[in-house]
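Known limitations

Files may contain more than one protein. Parsers should not assume a single record per file. Below, a two-record file is shown to illustrate correct handling: read the sequence, read the token line, then continue until end of file.
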Amino acid sequence: MPGWPIPTDNRVSSRMARQRRVDTDPELQLRRILHRAGLRYRVNMAVPGRPRRRMDIGFPRVRVAVFVDGCFWHVCPEHASWPANNAEWWRAKLEGNEIRDRDTDEALATAGWRVVRVWEHEPASLAAARVVEMIARRDRPSA
């Protein structure tokens, strides 16, 4: 996927350039709920063994990684959209994101981590409940 596509609409290009990569509203909502639940975590934590990849929320003691995925960028099955302009470039880009996500999940699993993927449209309270349950399962002593 060489270079960037040539923008066909300056307004769209400007809007896309302003998209946040960290501290998005869904991520902040989830972090607030987790913090209120007494959980402490690391933000924007490096993925072990994968340079330039970051987990949105990391719980290193119990090895739980949380990713809050945007519907557009990660091809949500409910809300994905495929741009008409520069369609071939965007298809390759978005499909590459999916492949990278799967590779990241596999790398973390191999390193003993559990991954929780949350869609940006999910209610933060439900996403937090999934994270809390995963941490509780990881935190229980083995018999």
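...continuing to the second record:
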Amino acid sequence: MASGSDYILVTDGDCIPRADFLETHIRLRAKGRFVSGGYCKLPMAISKAISPEDISLQRPFDPEWLRARGMRNTPVKLHAKGFFAKLLNALTPTTRSWNGHNSSGWKSDLLAVNGFDERMRYGGLDREIGERLINKGIVPIQARHLAICVHLDHSRGYVKNGDLAFNHAIRKATRDEKRVWTEYGIVKNPQP
């Protein structure tokens, strides 16, 4: 609600965006659509070793730099661009979804589904809002190989037993009932 922009990009605080991240999201935006970007999860040792200079110089996106630090298999998406990235997006079996680490959409669409379901805890909060957007007719754009960030590994002491099952039940109801609104979002009352 506090955003003054009509377009909102969401990412996690443990992600580093590639230099063309914002430009890519802005270029791909379209009415009635949201952008579903991708990420590459880095191993813990590399995550801990990355310096501000490494980020500034975009080293975490360089396969040779990553291999020199022990990462054997570096995803092609880190350096795929142009036609090749578009081809990879067309061929990927990954479902287009709202991803908390890398998605963007129109503020009006996010408000139309009442934002995130605030009952949800770790695991699936982002996917659930995307499911409501899709139920509302907002079509996701696959940008898994175009809009890229790297995800730093870290401990997850905040994950509690039962959270995933609780969230799964909410997501299942959203899908089964084709929900487009949550009563537990920005507005705390039934759908108008």
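Parsers that stop after the first record will miss the second one. For reference, the second record is described as follows. Residues 7-176 form a domain with the Spore Coat Polysaccharide Biosynthesis Protein SpsA; Chain A fold (CATH 3.90.550.10).
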